[in-house]
Specification:
Belongs to the metallo-dependent hydrolases superfamily. Adenosine and AMP deaminases family. Adenine deaminase type 2 subfamily. It catalyses: adenine + H2O + H(+) = hypoxanthine + NH4(+). It holds the Pfam family A_deaminase. There is one protein chain. It is built from 17 helices and 8 strands. The protein has 341 residues and is α/β, with parallel strands linked by helices. Helix 1 runs antiparallel to helix 15. The radius of gyration is 19 Å and the shape is globular. The chain starts with a helix and ends with a helix. It binds hypoxanthine and zinc ion.
């Protein structure tokens, strides 16, 4: 098993489901709080980390939005993103497609320009330093109104050349994708590809809506598709990727135990399954940690691991030439690993 873990860690991979605000480690949260003269309601880093014990998605989101309150200027967003990309480089990530939640920050008076500018500066640095390519996805908060999402899209208009796609996140139940039909139609008119969180806590019907109403090209989470065989068949036939986040699903009690997770079954069923970290600072690990936990709990094979790494690139928004290059890199690292066995 340790050999398979070494293979998974060494393979070039992409991360396609990462909320940059969810990469805020307690150490940086305290550093930024001190910088801005803000008092966090926790004595120290250990006390904050100890609070990361969630019952469901909402109990996590309450802490996640509170934590994001320390992000106030472009340098904060730069420091946050830079720290994530250092972890990404260590995990052999070669490409990242990351979400940011502008509404969490603009409603506190942080200018859109500072949010995007700070994140992008770190992305460009990591591209130069580590060769990590990127896409930036603006995500709408589904617990807020569609009018609020439309206003956010309008506010982002001067920066649309810096935004590669749009997503939908936050509290799922009671906020179906259909609530956002018009804003996503506008996004598509602007040429922005769409992804959406669906079927994490919400029912399979929300995945159908994300596909049919929002015209999502990828589903974030999507694990509840298993409850609807027709939906699973569609995801397989149309090769619509699912960005699965195993440690997140256990932390938020979507699954009581990783051993019960359906990702291996879906992968063997021919779906384009990818492994991602979601909110790594809160859920106990980055991409390699997710691979390691899955190898241990689900007894993933060598073939499974290589397929998951390949899927991370095929499901990405990279162009075909870049995908081909990265898939060849996977083959090279895999061959090297086989020789060493
Ligand atoms: O896992 C998630 N689900 C929904 N919204 C989120 N915002 C950050 N992480 C998540
Ligand atoms: Zn997510």
């Amino acid at each position: 098993m340790s050999d398979l873990i070494a293979l998974a860690c060494a393979l070039p991979k992409a991360e396609l489901h990462l909320h940059i605000e969810g990469s805020l480690e307690p150490e940086l949260a305290f550093e930024l709080a001190a910088k801005h003269g803000v008092t966090l309601p926790y004595a120290d880093v250990e006390a904050l980390r100890a609070a990361y014990d969630f019952n469901d998605l909402q109990s996590f989101l309450d802490l996640y939005y509170a934590g994001a309150g320390v992000l106030r200027d472009a340098d904060d967003f730069h420091a946050l993103t830079r720290a994530y990309l250092q972890r990404a480089a260590a995990d052999h990530l070669r490409h990242v497609e990351i979400f940011f939640d502008p509404q969490t920050h603009t409603e506190r008076g942080v200018p859109m320009e500072d949010i995007i500018g700070g994140i992008r500066r770190a992305l460009l640095e990591a591209e130069a330093e580590h060769g990590i390519t990127f896409r930036l996805i603006m995500s709408f908060l589904r617990h807020l109104s569609e009018a609020d999402a439309i206003a956010t899209l309008e506010a982002a208009k001067p920066f649309l050349h810096r935004i590669d796609g749009v997503g939908l996140d936050s509290s799922e139940n009671g906020h179906p994708p259909s609530k956002f039909e018009r804003v996503f139609a506008l996004c598509r008119e602007y040429g922005l590809p769409v992804v959406a969180h669906a079927g994490e806590e919400g029912p399979p019907a929300y995945i159908w809506e994300a596909l049919d109403i929002l015209q999502a090209r990828r589903i974030d989470h999507g694990v509840r598709c298993s409850e609807d065989p027709k939906l699973v068949e569609r995801l397989r036939a149309e090769q619509i990727p699912l960005t699965v986040c195993p440690l997140s699903n256990v932390k938020l009690k979507v699954y009581p135990d990783l051993a019960e997770h359906n990702l291996k079954g879906l992968l063997h069923g021919g779906l384009v399954i990818t492994i991602n970290s979601d909110d790594p600072a809160y859920f106990g690990g980055y991409v390699n940690d997710n691979f390691i936990a899955c190898i241990k709990a689900l007894d993933l094979s060598e073939t499974d691991i290589v397929q998951l790494a390949r899927n991370s690139f095929t499901a990405s928004w990279l162009d075909d030439a870049a995908k081909a290059r990265l898939l060849a890199e996977i083959d090279a690292v895999h061959a090297q690993w086989q020789t060493a066995q």
